[in-house]
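dumping these here so i dont lose them again. two proteins, back to back, each one seq then structure tokens. dont judge the mess
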Amino acid sequence: MEPSMIGRVRANLLVAALAASLVQISSLLSILLFRVPERVFVSEAFRLEAMSFVVCMVIAAHIFANAAFHAAQKNGHLTVWGGRRGAVSLSPRCPHLSLVVLHLRFVSRRIVFLDDFAGGV
């Protein structure tokens, strides 16, 4: 498997794991606070709903990260070098830095922070 593909898979698995953790936490809180019976959370319907939630959260992460990337590009917080597959220079002062970095991980682009070159010049 190519390193770029491994990076994309890892980024998607990270988002999916966070969404699955959210499902588990909400299930536990439902049992403890609202006295929902445990049998509700072992049914096929719940498993299908949980899987759908995780998939929707991964898709939503892609959408929000893409929007943050385009907003950062429009506002001058990043510069693209070398076309669609080239490196991206990113300002650490970008207001949506984590979402932009997530987008760059989703599409396997190299990230160079602008302040990294300040000491060398």
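---- next one ----
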Amino acid sequence: MKKILLSTALLSLTLLNAATTQEIKDEAKTAIVKLKTTLQTELKANMKKGGVQQAAVFCSNRASDITHAVNISFANHAKIRRISLKPRNSANSPKSDERIVLEQMQKDIDNGKKLKPLIVKQIYKDTYKVYKPIFINKGVCLKCHGNTQIRDAKAYKIIKQNYPNDRAINYKMNDFRGAFVVTIVKK
């Protein structure tokens, strides 16, 4: 009888954890879609308006503000940012725990493993970080993130003026670029 009760309790806990994990993933997806869609829409509009150079100005001047505005919309229970092992903007440098996750992602990719679409890490009792990998999956990305043969020289001059320590270059198609990371506090 004790074994049955223990098994039932463990199954209930597992189901509860699965439900909590799905809720966390759903919240993270909402934040990721909101930021990604907003940034992509603005980036495309700027590309259409003034080409790669205008897009570089937009990214340098507005991407951080847009991220901040998206975070405000989540009323402090979720915070999203973009992180990379090769950041352009130092604000996108990973924290130590985030660096470990990004390094593991890169290691898995290097070993031919396919990354999960979302990776959930519990940080504290009620705090989670959800990671969504970002890949270079459009040729236009290489106009600012590629090598010297592909990069737009005028756009990169704008970038270097704003980010003299830029490391977000020399990527190729399908390279791992970094991740969206959403910190969620469940109360």
